[in-house]
Records
---
Amino acid sequence: MSYILDAIHNLVLQTAFFNLDPKNYIMIAVACGLLYLAIAKEFEPLLLCPIAFGMLLVNIYPDIMLSIEDSANGVGGLLHYFYLLDEWAILPSLIFMGVGAMTDFGPLIANPKSFLLGAAAQFGIFAAYFMAIGFGFNDKAAAAVSIIGGADGPTSIFLAGKLGQTALMGPIAVAAYSYMSLVPIIQPPIMKLLTTEKERAIKMEQLRPVSKLERILFPIVVTIVVCLLLPTTAPLVGMLMLGNLFRESGVVRQLQETASNALMYIVVIVLGTSVGATTSAAAFLNWTTIKIVILGLVAFAFGTAAGVLFGKLMCVLTHGKVNPLIGSAGVSAVPMAARVSQKVGAESDPTNFLLMHAMGPNVAGVIGTAVAAGTFMAVFGIM
């Protein structure tokens, strides 16, 4: 009888109820809230589902992220191995290849002025950098935090790892992916505040057709130019352009389909779950994380506002031919930000079709954020 009682006693003590801190329950509630947004509200479920579930797992069973060094038997937790692929910049680079294979760069090629809108939206990154310095972060940590303003999760993970800010990688990645998911909520109020009803209703001319030769040369030329100027951007820009070359060349259909489907979704699962698993209560519920979340939101808002304001300037210079709303798509959230530009424009005029015009700045924003990351690495002498 005593054997049975001892067995039951040991079993009960092994349950998570006896091993969790009250803060873990707060994070479990947050994870459930994010799952609700992903499933019930469909806020980018491909991102939020794995992130939220990783958050749920690590706060119920913290050892799932146990490092090899801290393990008694030399075997780390399952998600620790996933996370190493983030630190080594493998998963962010593969994500970029998948994005390139999925994305049509034609709108950017047809309207090269979109590069200016994509560049303007990066203002939020550099504004947040100086704000982060004011918040007490050192220069490298400030750079890693500020890149959230580009609304680009893979680049945020990549830069944090390259700058040696792995302690901040979890909060930075979660903030970046959360803001990517919440683009439909965050951007519209800023866009409407900075534009008039008349501006939002502007219809843009149809984009010119882009030849196959242009589509093939674009990723090659961009890779050569950008990577010669900033070689450290090669893992991101190179993979982005390689994926797009798969798409546009027309001779490696199997590679394009794999990169944009099976491989892309596998990487999203592994990356999202491991990023979510960095949000243990001990690592996440502190003032540093709160400051990162605030700075990320400010950076994202500034980037959106800068893109819209530059769009207004282009509207004036072109005598009303550019709808300022497409400037908000200059952040890197592809294709969510472009869809938001379309949605807000359609609210003013249901016959207005801005999606393809907004994809130009959206793609430019992806390149621009990678360039911003490369600029920070060059400034700090990181190779």
---
Amino acid sequence: MTYFWSKEKNIIVKREIIIMLKSFASKVLAASLFASLIFTGCSKNSKEEERIQAIEKSQEELYSLLKNDKLEAVSRYAIVNQITNNLTALNDKQGVILFLTDWVENHPDDIYNAYWLLLTAYAYLSDGAEPVAEYYFDRILSSYQDLLVKGNSIHFSCLQNLIQISKTPRSRIRYFNELINRFPTNVSITELYLRLALEYEKESEWNEALKAYSMFLAQPDSSTIQIAGEPNAFKKARQLVGFNNSPKDWTFESLDALENAVKRAINRYDWRSLDKYRAKVNFFSMSWKQDEMDPNAQEEFSMRNFMRGNRVRYSKDLDSDSTSSEAYLRTWGWSQYVSVWYLYFRKVNFPQDPDIHGNWEWAGIYIGEKL
């Protein structure tokens, strides 16, 4: 045979033979892969069918056992729980819901009904039906005593979920208060007081909001805690509580009135008026890099110490970075070390008092040129 090389003719092996061999090899490989896939698929399908059949057989046996009226509570709990687990394993959420709600309705004396309704709520929650889940979580709180399952409080689990899915501030206020009063060691009290205050604000319950802010500030970690979505929690709480406890007699009805009064006092070197115009709480004096809540930025001082012997001046107009709620007035001549000061004015945010809310205050001083 001369399939590859022929000495007489010295030619390359016939291409058609090679092509045929390649084609044959491809077909064999394809057939092998196809057979393997079929076998694997059949194997997987077979195992899945066996799994489902085993669960269904288990369900039949469990339902049969459950018909025994003489079962002890613990045994009955184990059976109901296993039936629920089997339905969950089959991804039968509606089956879980129907079985458990029917069980609770027909067995009102079952001491584990709170737990069965908790599982019902979870089934609705996993199915995206949050309003229905909320109904069941709230029903457990309102109608069933707390129950420990595997060391976990049913009521605590309900409250945790309700805070996440509830849509109304009024409801969240109730849930936050319950968590604080009933489970103080299970939660971050500091964060909950802050979030409670925010919910009271949404409901325009300013007195309750201030009480919650005060409780937040009273916690030892209030100045250091990191709260998601509330990066300035401590600053805001301190300003509101401090402002509420002050006479608030330094505010001006408009930015123009405040600006003109300060400029007039500078022109006259009237340090007494400047001291009067400064905010009496939360007033800061700091560099642009410092934080307003830095203790070193809150030191008390009199403008007299910086006006005597100095020629103080100010810009004609407010700085270009000024907004509808904050304004900066560039001044200079205060000190031979750092001549430039930016006087910082801000609109008062204090809806608790309509006569004060929206006024303007001189809230601080930024020392040095803007960065």
---
Amino acid sequence: MKFVAFERAMQGTGASRRLRITGRTPGIVYGGTGQPQQIELDHNALWHALKKEAFHSTILDMEINATTSKVLLRDVQMHPFRQLILHADFQRVEANTKLHMKVPLHYSGEEESQAVKLEHCLVNHVITELGISCLPADLPEFIAVDLGGLKKGASLHLKDVVLPKGVSAVTRGKENPVLVSVVAPAAEVSEAAAADAAAAAPAGGKGGAAGKAAPAAKAPAAAKTPAGKAPAAKAPASKK
């Protein structure tokens, strides 16, 4: 992909703010044998370019002062809530220097797999982009992954994927991460959970806590009065 940039003479926060008001976006180009170069780009053109996947993962042709150079998009700073690009960073590309990039994974064929078509499983894409190392000439726009061989209970790992020639994966702490996982249908998961719950429940029976009824509460005994004895009535006092 190709885009046009312009040299930027003014630097600083105030200059960048005034530049954005005019519809331009400040940026920088660094790396390689040259010095960092301050640039500016048309905001609307950059906004539409960022919507394209290839703009993020392929080598770009940057034209500035009628000279074209190879660069990579390295970072974009966005406004917190406005549709505004604040700054863009680009890195120069040298033909003999390996690149470290993240490229998207394009999955296909899962609808025709046994796991989905016959066993009605769910397929989760655990990883959607992969870090790679390669020379600029070998940089792929994306890596295609065929999921047509998925089966229930199986997962797709990194070592199951054939990478393009000259490309090696860069993983952080995980030698063979899971790319795609297969989940059993919800009905089977519910039945398995119910079976596990039934197996874990204690069996009722004699001697078991479940088979014993709680003893009835005893009513407090009523106060007893001696039989045949009534309280003596007091005689009225005689009048003198």
